[in-house]
């Protein structure tokens, strides 16, 4: 087995990551509100010794439910149910620094970490959609710069709360009648421009010190934020060279913050269509693309592009100049526009073709091929400075994950790239991350 090992997460999107997955007979949209469905997916991921399952989330209805299934379950609650059905699998959920308060969020993830025995991870987002503001009584969605300024304060406050108990604060001395030593439990007295949190926290430190900090954002602010805080980073790239550039940049930034770059795991998304033959894999991908509803895909593309595309005919080439401003990665939407701009510039697709290119995983890398070819792509990116592992995004659930774990994972194991069994019990141990110190160590 090679010294450096891949990290693999199953990114759960209820019916699957292809936008037409819910229409395909191999998916189960009828079960997306059934907790046992997710527990079964969790057991599949754990049987393959994957690092974690991951749920995205947002506090607004962004999906056009006329044409697609809405993934509406709150992820931290759902992961607690998956925790009860598994014993080693990591559990990562998205939660917004814009629409939570630090103390509440700290309690939610601390509880998940305790309940699961140290398997929780928090995917930190600032929320990219202005649809959320009105759901929380706000007149406007904060702008990008303001959201990241609040996010920095938010993470500092949450981590401060988690660390406010020293590791040995719980004495549990029955004879003396002392449960905990108050001198080892500290107020944090956090005061920032946006947030004030007194503390201390109302629960002891968790098995892994505190949940793993995860981040998903490729903007300039997002990269700086990730380099400062994130222990794992989810990102989207179409080409090896773009992924290598991102990987090198974020590792460099982490080093500048005085961090060990090896403790920042970069995990691009990959959505694999897998069949016994390459031709069969492409047929499977076409099956899904033929089920797409152009109206839905156009709405998604307009959201990513930041402009109306209603004047374009489906079977005419997409003008390159529509994405002329995509080079300025000022926010996460701009970074995704940059991905789309690259596709348009290199491939000159028709609008229909572009919709099909994005239908598979919203701008993440889609691979159609045999298990060996999918494994080759993963190994190539892993060995050539583009990834520490991958967020696996099956086009359809549950079968897409099962095919990946049954066919691709054994190949990666045979090449010495992926574990054959868990060697630890916490998500930090799976990822090779150190346990953070408590208040006395900080």
TrEMBL record:
InterPro entries for the chain: Diverse_substr_monoxygenases, Luciferase-like_dom, Luciferase-like_sf, NTA_MOA
Keyword DNA-binding: no
Pfam family of the protein (one): Bac_luciferase
Alphabetized UniProt keyword annotations: Flavoprotein, FMN, Monooxygenase, Oxidoreductase
Chain ranges of the Luciferase-like domain: 27-386
SUPFAM superfamilies the record matches: Bacterial luciferase-like
Binding of FMN, residues: 57, 94, 144, 148, 219
Superkingdom per UniProt: Bacteria
Coiled-coil residue spans: none
Statement: the UniProt record of this protein carries the keyword Cell membrane: no
CDD domains: Nitrilotriacetate_monoxgenase
One Gene Ontology MF term: oxidoreductase activity, acting on paired donors, with incorporation or reduction of molecular oxygen
Family listed: Belongs to the NtaA/SnaA/DszA monooxygenase family.
Protein name stated in the entry: LLM class flavin-dependent oxidoreductase
Species of the source: Nocardia veterana
């Amino acid at each position: 087995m090679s010294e450096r090992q891949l990290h693999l997460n199953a990114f759960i999107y209820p019916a699957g990551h292809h936008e037409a997955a819910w229409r395909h007979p191999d998916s189960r949209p009828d079960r997306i509100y059934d907790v046992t469905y997710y527990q079964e997916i969790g057991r599949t991921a754990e049987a393959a010794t994957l690092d974690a399952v991951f749920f995205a989330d947002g506090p607004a209805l962004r999906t056009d439910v006329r044409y697609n299934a809405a993934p509406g379950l709150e992820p931290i609650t759902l992961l607690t149910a998956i925790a009860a059905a598994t014993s080693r699998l990591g559990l990562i959920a998205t939660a917004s620094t814009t629409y939570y308060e630090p103390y509440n969020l700290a309690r939610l993830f601390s509880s998940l970490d305790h309940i699961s025995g140290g398997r929780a991870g928090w995917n930190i987002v600032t929320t990219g959609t202005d649809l959320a503001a009105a759901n929380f009584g706000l007149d406007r969605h904060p702008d990008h710069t303001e959201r990241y300024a609040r996010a920095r304060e938010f993470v500092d406050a949450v981590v401060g709360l988690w660390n406010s108990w020293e590791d040995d604060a719980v004495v549990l001395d029955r004879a003396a009648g002392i449960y905990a030593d108050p001198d080892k439990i500290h107020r944090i007295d956090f005061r920032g421009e946006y947030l004030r949190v007194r503390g201390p926290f109302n629960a002891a430190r968790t098995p892994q010190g505190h949940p793993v900090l995860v981040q998903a954002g490729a903007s300039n602010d997002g990269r700086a934020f990730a380099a400062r805080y994130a222990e794992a980073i989810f990102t989207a790239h179409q080409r090896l060279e773009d992924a290598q550039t991102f990987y090198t940049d974020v590792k460099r930034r982490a080093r500048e913050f005085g961090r060990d770059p090896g403790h920042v795991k970069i995990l691009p998304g990959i959505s694999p269509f897998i069949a016994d033959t390459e031709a069969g894999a492409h047929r499977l991908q076409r099956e899904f693309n033929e089920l797409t509803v152009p109206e839905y895909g156009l709405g998604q593309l307009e959201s990513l592009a930041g402009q109306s595309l209603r004047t374009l005919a489906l079977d005419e080439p997409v003008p390159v100049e529509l994405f002329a401003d995509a080079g300025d990665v000022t926010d996460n939407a701009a970074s995704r526009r940059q991905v789309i701009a690259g596709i348009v510039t290199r491939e000159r697709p028709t609008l229909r073709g572009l919709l099909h290119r994005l239908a598979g995983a919203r701008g993440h890398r889609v691979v159609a091929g045999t298990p060996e070819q999918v494994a080759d792509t993963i190994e190539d990116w892993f060995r050539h400075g583009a990834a520490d592992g991958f967020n696996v995004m099956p086009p359809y659930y549950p079968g897409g994950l099962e095919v990946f774990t049954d066919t691709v994972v054994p190949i990666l194991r045979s090449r010495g790239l992926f574990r054959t069994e868990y060697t630890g019990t916490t998500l930090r141990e799976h990822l090779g991350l150190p346990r953070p110190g408590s208040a006395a160590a900080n």
